[in-house]
Design a protein that fits this description.
Blueprint: H1 2-18, H2 38-50, E1 56-57, H3 62-75, E2 79-81, E3 102-104, H4 109-122, E4 128-135, H5 138-154, E5 157-165, H6 172-181, E6 185-188, H7 192-204, E7 210-213, H8 226-229, E8 233-236, H9 246-256, H10 265-285, H11 293-305, E9 308-309, E10 314-317, E11 323-324, E12 328-333, E13 336-342
Parallel strand pairs: 1-2, 2-3, 4-5, 4-6, 6-7, 7-8
Antiparallel strand pairs: 8-12, 9-10, 10-11, 12-13
Helix pairs in contact: 1-10, 2-3, 4-5, 6-7, 10-11
């Protein structure tokens, strides 16, 4: 997940600098690998501070991002993540206190879980559902819990819930159980590698249900066949192939020598970079000195109150610093994700 985020951030600032930077100043991007670990993220942040940073884009995975956010909040350092979806990134779960310096470009977990329960009932006509999730994953459990609450409200009966531990790859037993209950839909709030393996195992077990996922489904096509994926549906902050993202997709593929953008985290990282640059420009326009308390607060205030046109939509932010924009519903047709509708 990290490489597409890193690449898109670099692409944005390379293009921005080539066009003159911010008010004639070039933006220097310093990159650090936190290895998906919260302690590593904080260590990297402390090193970055020594190197004179004025804002942070990251991290990628939710756990590391929460660790990083704990540190940036103490410094009121502007921070935005493209991909960390748990509510705890911007709101402290023990106190409910908002980390006023932290933003995200992606949708939060509960929003996605609720959306997919609504979509299952309103658009797919589902009456029964099974759930397959990853224990101990903030992302997976966040989506699952919200789906369960909304399913009950919508009258969607959950006939089976199965789980797996991080690192598991054999899902035959769980999918055999799900197949025996014959649900209309199977909600898999997990990332694409495991999702593909789960769908493979389900089809082999005779399950004919429609599979639903959150934004972690992005590259599931690399882990299951076109036939197995046909009709699967997931929500995303990004609709590939649409007019608004066409130039980004072309630039990304040419710059990094790939045939297609790997997943939605890349365009969201591009937008996260654009959002941060919007805040930086506001602080520069005010003539403030980079890195000062006043400068950092000006960046934060500009983002919090702004309306920023990104390539995946127009961003405004709610009181918890989560983005307010429409959700793209994608479906797999002949092995490729296609925009089904905005929902």
């Amino acid at each position: 997940y990290g490489i597409p985020v890193r690449n898109a951030v670099m692409l944005y600032f390379d293009q921005l600098n080539a066009a003159g930077g911010i008010n004639g100043k070039k933006v220097v991007v310093k990159e650090y690998d936190d290895k998906g670990d919260g302690v590593e993220a904080v260590n990297a942040y402390n090193l970055a501070k020594e190197n004179g940073i004025t804002a942070v884009i990251g991290s990628v995975l939710t756990g590391a991002t929460i660790g990083l956010a704990d540190a940036t909040y103490e410094d009121n350092m502007p921070q935005i993540t493209a991909s960390a979806t748990a509510t705890g990134v911007t709101v402290m779960e023990d106190t409910g206190e908002v980390r006023t310096n932290v933003f995200r470009a992606c949708f939060i977990d509960p929003f996605q879980g609720q959306k997919m329960a609504d979509y299952a009932v309103e658009k797919l006509g589902a009456k029964t559902a099974a759930i397959f999730y990853e224990t101990g994953s903030d992302y997976s459990e966040g989506l699952k819990n919200a789906f369960v609450v909304e399913a009950e409200r919508m009258g969607l009966e959950i006939v089976d819930t199965e789980a797996f531990a991080t690192g598991d790859k054999d899902f035959k037993a769980q999918m055999t159980n799900i197949a025996s209950k014959n649900p209309d839909i199977v909600f898999c709030p997990i990332y694409y590698g495991e999702a593909g393996l789960a769908i493979q195992a389900a089809r082999q077990a005779g399950c004919t249900a429609t599979f639903l996922g959150g934004d972690g489904f992005g590259s599931v096509k690399d882990y299951a066949s076109a036939e197995e994926l046909e009709g699967s549906v997931y929500c995303s902050g990004y609709a590939p192939g649409t007019e608004d993202v066409a130039q980004f997709e072309k630039d990304y593929c040419e710059t990094f020598g790939v045939e297609e953008v790997p997943n939605m985290f890349a365009p969201l990282a591009y937008d996260a970079s654009m959002i941060m640059a919007y805040g930086l420009k506001a602080a520069e326009d005010a003539g403030l000195e980079a890195g000062t308390d006043e400068y950092k607060q000006a960046v934060i205030d500009a983002i919090a109150s702004g309306s920023i046109d990104g390539i995946t939509g127009t961003f405004t932010f709610d009181e918890h610093h989560n983005p307010v924009k429409e959700t793209a519903i994608l479906t797999y047709v002949d092995g490729k994700p296609e925009l089904k509708e905005m929902f």
